[in-house]
Amino acid sequence: MFEPYIIIKFFHIVMAGIWLGTDMGVYSAAKKLRDPNLTIETRASMGNLSGILDMGPRSALVILLMLGITLTFLGGWGFNASYGSNLGLLAFIAGLAWLAGIWHQYWVDHPNLGEERPHKHIQFQNIFRKLDLFLRVIITGILFVVASLSLTGNGPIEAYWLSIKLILFSAIIACGIGIRLYIPQAREAIADIFKNGSSPEREGKLSLNRRISLFFVKSIWVLVAVIIWISVAKF
Question: Given this model, what pLDDT does residue 1 score?
Fold first, then answer.
């Protein structure tokens, strides 16, 4: 009952639920943030709520990668060579470091009213943002290639369903990259509204960004749901 595989599998399922739940919370809060009929103060509060809720899916992605690699090895679905346990340990260490960087980014981006974060922390995040995006691109490519090779019988994954799942997971990360490419534009539009007030032109810029971002967000929801089904069905 309390074997490592069962425990890790439990947390793997929990994290998938947290991802979907908090991501939908981000969607609801962001919708209020973009509502021109609300006061600036209310929209700012929704922005803060959206920021903390967004840490759910951002953290879940990294944790699911860590747990997924370990489950693949422990469950005998792949990585059965001698490097399997070492790969799981490396994923755990790298994942914790990545998580620390992500939460540090949130801390830097959300200072208390009237406060400024130390310059060295801001400088670190300027570097980390680029590294974070680079890692996502690399991991997307690695997952897709490994899964594709495994489908042909030449990769380390032995289960067909898991290879399909990895391809879909790489698509999720790709959607996340797409969202991140539009985040700076959204922040600029929101900051302009908060500073200079609402206007049809400023709201129009924010609305255009929203339509593009929503495509990626809803794609992620569908992909996560399909991945959960595949994990249960194991066809």
Answer: 66
Q: What is the pTM of this model?
A: 0.88
Cα–Cα distance for residue pair 80/84, rounded to 1 Å: 6
The owner of tokens 């997307």 is 140
* Digit-coded pLDDT (tens) for 3-54: 888 999 999 999 999 999 999 999 999 889 888 888 988 988 998 899 999 9
CA–CA dist 154, 87 (Å, integer)? 19
Q: Which long-range contacts (CB under 8 A, 24 or more apart) does 163-166 make?
A: 164/230, 165/227, 165/230, 165/231
* Contact residues for 17 (Cβ-Cβ < 8 A; gap 6+): none
Residue tagged 């060295």 (tokens): 120
Contact yes or no for 2/50 (Cβ under 8 A): no
In the chain, where are the structural domains located? 4-233
Q: How many other CB atoms sit within 10 Å of the CB of residue 213? A: 21
